[in-house]
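USER: Fancy drafting a protein?

ASSISTANT:
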Amino acid sequence: NTYQFVVKNSTSCNLNYSINFIETNNHNINVQYKLKKNDTYIVDHYVKTSELKVSNMLLNPNENDTYYLEWKWISSSNDTAVGENPESDYSLKIDIKAEGIND
């Protein structure tokens, strides 16, 4: 599956931004990700969230970057136990931080 999100600069100055992905995964669900910015893969193979980072991205005034976060549940030895446990849950927080750049 794919989740699309947009980073938009609606200011009049350039922005430098970073994106961190924060996983809550108390039952070891084996979800991995690929990440595309606009039409180009930043991460072109499935990785864990610890390997999924975006930093030092420049965004000009009134422009935006569209991201496509592709995710996949990778088969693992605990799949049955996770699926049978009603308390199994998983969440991923996307944390975007931006800073204006003054020329």
Q: What stands out?
A: Helices lie at 79-84.
